[in-house]
Specification:
Layout (H helix, E strand, L loop, with lengths): L10 H5 L9 H9 L4 H4 L18 H9 L4 H6 L1
C-alpha cells in the first residue's frame, strides 16, 4: 500500500513543492477526492471547486481527505 507522507507545519509548504508524479498513489487518491487531477495540479486546467471552498462547505469525505493530507479547518480556511 502506498504511504501518505507526514506533514508538519503548513501543508501548503509541502504540497506546493511537489509535482503530481512525485506523490504516492495514496496521496494522489486523496487529492482526487478533493477534485484534483494531474492536469489541474500542473495548472493546465482550472483548480477544482474545493480549492475555493471553506472547510464547512467541504463534504465529510473531502474533510477526511484534507485531514489525511495534513490540513485542519484553520489551515484550510487560511488558504
Amino acid at each position: 500500500m502506498a504511504t501518505i507522507r507526514t506533514v508538519s507545519g503548513n501543508p501548503e509548504d509541502v504540497w506546493d513543492e511537489l509535482d503530481w508524479q512525485d506523490m504516492s498513489s495514496a496521496e494522489q487518491a486523496l487529492w482526487e477526492i478533493l477534485g484534483w487531477d494531474e492536469s489541474s495540479w500542473n495548472e493546465e486546467t482550472d483548480p477544482p471547486e474545493s480549492s475555493d471552498q471553506y472547510w464547512e462547505d467541504l463534504s465529510s469525505e473531502e474533510q477526511a481527505a484534507a485531514k489525511k493530507l495534513g490540513y485542519t479547518q484553520e489551515l484550510w480556511d487560511e488558504e
